[in-house]
Amino acid sequence: MCDNHESGATGHFVPAYIHKHIAESAAAPDKARQAALRTLSVDQDFRGQRVTASETAAAPCAADEPGVLAAQVPISKEAGDEARESARATLKTDAKIREQRAALIGPAATDEPHDHLAAPFQLKRLIYDAKGSGNLRGTLARAEGAGRNTDRQVNNVYDAIGITAMFFYTVFGRNSVDDKGGNIVATVHFDSKPDDQLGYNNAFFFGTEFAFGDGDGIIFDYFTDALDVVAHELTHAVTKYTSGFTYKFQTGGLNESISDVFAALVEQWHFNQTAAEADWLNGQSLFPVAIRGPALRDMANPGTAYDDSILGRDPQISHFSQYNDDLSVHVTSGIPNRAFYLAAIGFGGYAYDKAGKIWYATLTDSRIEAIAKTATFKQWADVTVDQANKLFGTGATVIVRNAWIAVGVLV
Ligand SMILES: [Zn+2]
Q1: 217, 308, 306, 223: which is closest to 32 by C-alpha?
Q2: 56 C-alpha to center of ligand 1: Å?
Q3: N- or C-end of the chain: fewer Cβ atoms within 10 A?
Q4: Ligand 1 center–CA 8 separation, angstroms
Q5: Residue 295: inside a domain
Q6: CATH number for the domain including 382?
Q7: Where is the Peptidase M4 domain (predicted)?
Q8: Whole domain around residue 251: which residue ranges?
Q9: 193 CA → ligand 1 middle, Å
């Protein structure tokens, strides 16, 4: 199957291969396996919609058709009739969900941002509550300036969006994700199949807005509780409005890495951590207290974030010699992730001061935008070296070049 762009056209935080492992794991409780299957189905459906809506997205291969992937995931023999019935029900409801998604593409895409020059920076957050449905923009739960309410998930995503937007503005002068002061719209308690009370295990970027599930409470906790998850998804929007990177092959690996890099920087900025003090982990807060410990990605040492019978083993790679086009973008992103980590450690101090500014200057470089569909790790690396020189002089180019040499992208 073409896993190189699985579940990716909508920038899901948790890659499909993790859900697949949970669904097949004899160690996972029945309910967790069902939730994993259901999440795979929902994610595939949304990705299909995005592919339909976007000219730049890769055409789906047959195995990626909504619902088909879930049908191909074998439920382990230990799974009860209930799990098999749940999988069948999931497939049956896909057609209905596709209709709903098609209706949503219009309003999401027509959310025109304000004029850049007429709009000095200000936060404009709109947080909606899907109330367990699959409706983006269900009920408006908290608009910009409104006080905290009694819904922790609404408040958390409101705050995390605020921190992320302030980071991009304070450090890089970026005015909202589109740099035009546009609204940031998010939906919480998203779950397109609430009747079975399994919980939706993901967060994603869809068109111009964001959705966050509540998790199954067994393997995954609320997706709004993790600042880096929210920052990761918002950065997918920044990428859309800058490099415009597509979501496959090396360009897709860069797209994923950019979201991990800036998510890590948002956390480090907010918690006042230097590069040496930071943990360089993504998604650590996604897991419930009972199984807390692993993270989803380790930028310092890709491939070591987790290794257990339920989640499987972290397949991320960290050197270009391991790369091939069949790998998931969530796997290949380990290479540029580690390069960024090495550059940040090489500079010392706060990672966003130098390495972060070099990466942001690269992301907004017209040379990068010109190769939005075909950018390779080497092309990106060459521009980071050039931007290092422009921003911080020749000493900086040595640090950045050495980081890319260490991961096998430059020689
Ligand atoms: Zn992502």
Answers
A1: 217
A2: 17
A3: C
A4: 7
A5: yes
A6: 1.10.390.10
A7: 160-240
A8: 245-411
A9: 23
Confidence band for 55, pLDDT divided at 50, 70 and 90: very low
**Helix H or strand E encompassing 94:** helix 81-109
Q: Give dist(CA 179, CA 391) in Å, integer.
A: 21
Give one DSSP letter per residue of 46-82, joined into a string.
HHHHHHHH-SSSPPPPGGGSTTHHHHHSPPPTTS-HH
Task: Concatenate the DSSP letters of all residues of 143-202 into one string.
Answer: ETTPPP-S-HHHHHHHHHHHHHHHHHHHHH---STTSS---EEEEES--S-GGG------
Tokens representing 288? 């419930």
- What's the 386 CA to ligand 1 centre distance in angstroms? 26
pLDDT at 1: 30
Pairing of strands 184-188, 209-212: parallel
Q: How confident is the model at residue 293 (pLDDT cuts 50, 70, 90)?
A: low
List the structure tokens of 375: 């950018």
For 237-281, what is each residue's pLDDT tens digit? 999 999 999 999 999 999 999 999 999 999 999 999 999 999 999
Q: How many domains does the chain have?
A: 1
Residue 317 · residue 297 · CB < 8 Å: no
Contact 12, 203 (CB under 8 A): yes
Domain assignment present for 111: no
Q: Note the pLDDT of residue 343.
A: 98
CA of 20 to the centre of ligand 1 (A): 17
Question: What kind and span of H or E run contains 93?
Answer: helix 81-109
CA 97 to CA 136: how far, in whole Å?
12
Is residue 330 in a domain?
yes
Query: Would you say residue 203 lies in a domain?
Result: no
Residue pair 204/39 in contact (Cβ under 8 Å)? The answer is: no
Task: Give the Cβ contact number of residue 280 at 10 Å.
Answer: 24
Q: Which long-range contacts (CB under 8 A, 24 or more apart) does 82-89 make?
A: 82/30, 82/34, 83/30, 83/33, 83/34, 83/37, 86/34, 86/37, 86/38, 86/196, 86/198, 87/34, 87/37, 89/196
Active site residues: 233, 330
Coil, helix or strand at residue 19: helix
Q: How far is the CA of 229 from the centre of ligand 1 (A)?
A: 9
Q: Using the mean position of ligand 1's atoms as its centre, give its distance from the Cα of residue 259 in Å.
A: 6
Measured CA to CA in angstroms, residue 15 lies from 122, 204, 228 at distances of 33, 11, 15
Q: Which helix (H) or strand (E) holds 298?
A: strand 297-298
